[in-house]
Amino acid sequence: MEENIKLVKDFSHTPQIMRQGIKAYQKKFVYPKAIVKSIVFVILAFAAAAVILSGMLNEKIRILGYLVFVGFLALAFRELFNPLKQRDNIVMSMNGNGIIPIYRLTVKDKTVEISTVSEKYEDEEEAETEELDEEYSEEEIKPTIIPIDDGFSVIEAEACFVLVCSDYAYYIIPKADFTADELEIMLSIAK
Question: Which of 15, 101, 134, 157 is deepest in the core (most CB within 10 A)?
Answer without folding.
Answer: 157
